[in-house]
Design brief:
The structure holds two protein chains of two kinds. By secondary structure, chain A is of the alpha/beta class. In chain A, about 35% of the residues lie in helices and about 15% in strands. In chain A, helix 4 crosses helix 5. Helix content of chain B is about 40%, strand content about 20%. Classes of the chains: A alpha/beta, B alpha/beta.
Chain lengths: ~250, ~350
């Protein structure tokens, strides 16, 4: 036997991810999160039966990376679009992939009501505390004191309010069946993120109702930090205000 | 023989939608179209369809976008202020080439306005309404029967052109109760190879309106423009006692309906007055209006607004004859006698005999 034949492949690109380079900035967590989602699509054997609703923001281009059926949604409306997809094809796996500018600002009504109806869809929410694609403006999730291009003196609690904790808010709704906040800033958290996604996929495929996974994510470009500094901020400042964990798991034993 | 029933205009819309195979309806209450969601909330479950009362007009049009993206026939309905909210979604439907039927039983504006009939939504219907360089097919019924028939046609046109289609009535057309013949829908709906059905044995389909590569969006817009041009063959209009008319009245929807009686009143007085009623507002019956402008001595547009369609009539007439106008802002519905009197004013002013 040759040396090559003895080697066992232990890592590969998920089948449902296209073999193309990401346009995401160095150090951005979208790439890792895309991969984690694609891994679950593969693991559940859903590539041929997945319908995704893309949102407006950096991740609108998710269809350049995921090799599944995707429809683009207007800003914030992905949960409504996904509702239409799922109602028309209840046997398909339907997910949205949304940023915090999209989901927590302009799309607040759509996410709250999709969750409250208990739509049997999965929402992947990427919270990097800033409007990324438009160049780093203040988002509803921007932390107090954080400097952005539209909060040049730092976010003021007095005039802008405090950052919205979406996971906690949605957990209060009867319709939300599963809600977790995760991060991918280290291997330990990445494994928990994987488990949360797997749980969310289980919820939908079993018809258990609305599942929501919030990822805390870095945005080195708009935070004006190095990739390493930004990654560290996720685990410290971000996770301090947005505690990681499973907020709701109605089918937990 | 088709069953004949006595129903409200709004119910005729809902029944036409179900007959045409629409099984997904997303709506929100607003007067004077609420009979549509009310009817469908009871009827959809009986035919295995989905009725969903959305949290907003915005959500409703986006639910339609999602359902229609899978290839299903889907509809939403509203009235003027609600349609304004849907315009964002309509623009995305047009840009992503996703078919859908949007019913506007319009009311008076601007702002909250009132619930009276109005034709003040002609612009927001025919000018695209939302952002960007696009067009929406617009059908303007004038009877409950046409509500039924044109709703079925709307689904065919939406699928044929992969484009949003608007059915534009008003409070009068939606609320009036009259006999309707429930004709059967016999067409075989088009296949939709572009639809999102899961990437089985193929790569993922993408329905989108974002085109970032150099020249891509230009090409996309030119392709859409050609499509809108090709819709010209869908022009529909009706004429009434128009052949020898010296004064030809032009009106759509409810005013077009009222004017039939005005024409009869004037004909009884020996005046050669006729009517041209556009049924498609986009595409607009330009050719028919131009030919009418050659034949008649004067065209007169009447609208329940201060003048919107009159602009299209003037463009189409190309100054071949004078185009006069009478507008009635919302608040009361003009009677056949009142409109006949307005026509007579123009008859005399223009020295017709």
């Amino acid at each position: 036997m040759s040396a090559k034949a003895k080697m066992k492949q232990v890592f590969d690109r998920p089948k449902s991810l296209k073999d193309v380079p990401y346009h995401y900035c160095p150090g951005c967590h979208h790439g890792v999160i895309h991969r984690l989602v694609a891994e679950q699509i593969d693991a559940f054997g859903l590539q041929e039966n997945t319908l995704a609703a893309a949102s407006v923001g950096c991740s609108v281009l998710m269809y350049d990376y995921f090799d599944v059926d995707v429809v683009e949604s207007p800003h914030g409306r992905a949960p409504a679009v996904a509702t239409g997809l799922k109602r028309a094809r209840p046997d398909s796996f339907v997910f949205t992939y949304q940023g915090d500018g999209d989901l927590a600002a302009i799309g607040t009504a759509e996410i709250v009501h999709a969750a409250n109806r208990g739509e049997n869809i999965t929402v992947v929410f990427v919270n990097n505390a800033v409007f990324g694609m438009t160049g780093g403006q203040m988002a509803p999730t921007t932390l107090e004191g954080q400097v952005t291009t539209t909060s040049p003196y730092g976010r003021s609690a007095a005039t802008d309010g405090m950052a919205i904790r979406v996971c906690e808010m949605l957990s209060t709704l009867e319709g939300t069946a599963y809600a977790a906040r995760v991060s991918v800033d280290n291997i330990k958290n990445l494994k928990k993120a994987k488990a949360a996604l797997k749980r969310a996929f289980t919820y939908q495929t079993k018809g258990w109702g609305f599942s929501f996974v919030e990822f805390l994510s870095s945005c080195p470009t708009n935070w004006k930090m190095s990739a390493e500094e930004a990654n560290a901020r996720v685990g410290k400042e971000m996770a301090d205000y947005f505690p990681l964990g499973v907020y709701k798991d109605v089918r937990a034993n | 023989m088709a069953r004949r029933v006595m129903i409200k205009g709004n119910e005729a819309i809902a029944m036409g939608a179900i007959e045409a195979g629409c099984r997904y309806y997303f709506g929100y209450p607003i007067t004077p179209q609420t009979d549509i969601p009310e009817y469908l909330s009871a009827a959809m479950p009986k035919v295995g369809g989905v009725f969903l009362q959305a949290e907003s007009e915005v959500a409703a049009i986006n639910m339609l976008l999602g359902a229609a993206a899978t290839g299903a026939r889907a509809m939403t309905s509203s009235s003027s202020p609600g349609i304004s909210l849907k315009q964002e979604g309509i623009s995305y439907l047009a840009g992503s080439q996703i078919p859908g039927v949007i019913v506007n039983m319009s009311r008076s504006g601007p702002g909250l306005g009132g619930i009276h009939p109005s034709q003040g939504d002609y612009f927001q219907s025919t000018r695209g309404g939302g952002h960007g360089d696009y067009r929406t097919l617009v059908l303007a019924p004038s009877t409950a029967q046409e509500n039924y028939d044109l709703t079925m046609l709307a689904f065919d046109l939406a699928d044929k052109y992969r484009n949003p289609v608007m059915v534009l009535g008003d409070a009068l057309i939606g609320q009036i109760k009259e006999p309707v013949e429930l004709k059967s829908y016999r067409k075989k709906p088009k296949d939709k190879p572009w639809a999102l059905t899961g990437a089985k044995g193929r790569h993922g389909h993408i329905l989108k309106s974002l085109f970032l590569a150099d020249g891509e969006l230009t090409d996309h817009n030119w392709m859409l423009a050609k499509k809108y041009k090709s819709m010209e063959k869908e022009v529909r209009f009706e004429t009434y006692r128009a052949d020898d008319a010296e004064l030809l009245l032009v009106a759509f929807g409810s005013v077009g309906r009222i004017l039939r009686t005005s024409v009869d009143i004037l004909r009884d007085k020996g005046k050669a007055v006729g009517l041209l009623r556009p049924i498609t507002l986009f595409p607009f019956p330009n050719k028919a209006v131009r030919q009418a402008a050659d034949k008649a001595k004067v065209l007169m547009v009447m609208e329940m607004s201060t003048g919107q369609m009159v602009e299209d009539v003037r463009l189409a007439a190309e100054c071949a004859c004078p185009v006069d106008f009478y507008g009635r802002p919302p608040g009361s519905i003009p009677t056949p006698d009142e409109l006949a009197k307005e026509a007579m004013k123009i008859w005399r002013k223009r020295g017709l005999k």
